[in-house]
Amino acid sequence: MRHYLERGTTTVEFAIVGSLFFMVLMGVLEFGRALYTWNTLSEVARRGARVAAVCPLYHSAIERVALITSPGDTGGSPFVHGLLPEHIQTQYLDEDSNNIADPIGNYSDIKFVRVSINGFQYTTLIPFVGPHRIFSTPGFDATLPRESLGISADSATPVCFGSQT
């Protein structure tokens, strides 16, 4: 008789424990996804700064190589959903790390290049997290000393990462 009264307890226990398990599992997966996005944004800034240091001023390859896309692609990054070329800003800095307003006119003053990722918003896959599941990320930037800035030793037309423009 006692066994008959406890017939549904296993199902109820599984429902409670299973829902907790899947909530924790989804939280771990979302945290891993957020960490991947964070690291990729940092890498995008680093790649962009590296290209900006060796390519001509405001060259199209800076955004393309930073976003890890192919020549001719005008869309966003295939690795981070929602990361677009509009999120990438390139600055040319003087020796005191001040932004040079006209880098073309003050070419010899450029000592550093900085590429920043600003305005990117991360969207979670878990419902009920934050307003509309969207979080603004902090700005990511990378600053490197200038190198050739696209000027070659033989003064040929600069070709930077597969394109001239």
Oligomer: single chain
Quickly count the helices. Answer: 3
Name the helix and strand elements from N-terminus to C-terminus, one letter apiece.
Answer: HHHEEEEE
Strand content: 5-15%
Q: Helix/strand/pairing class, anyone?
A: alpha+beta
Question: If you average the pLDDT, what whole number results?
Answer: 86
**End-to-end C-alpha gap:** 84 Å
Percent of residues in helices: 25-40%
Contiguous uncertain segments of 5+ residues: none
Number of strands: 5
Morphology call: elongated
Number of domains: 1
Biggest beta-sheet profile: 3 strands, antiparallel
* Neighbour order of strands in the largest sheet: 1-2-5
Radius of gyration: 24 Å
List keywords for this structure.
alpha+beta, 35% helix, three-stranded antiparallel sheet, 165 residues, 5 strands, two-stranded antiparallel sheet
Protein architecture, described:
- By secondary structure, this protein is of the alpha+beta class.
- The protein has one domain (2-145).
- It is 35% helix and 15% strand.
- The chain has helices spanning 2-5, 9-54, 60-67, and strands at residues 88-93, 112-117, 121-123, 134-136, 140-145.
- The strands form two sheets. It has a three-stranded antiparallel β-sheet. The chain has a two-stranded antiparallel sheet with strand order 3-4.
- Helix 2 (9-54) runs antiparallel to helix 3.
- The mean pLDDT is 86.
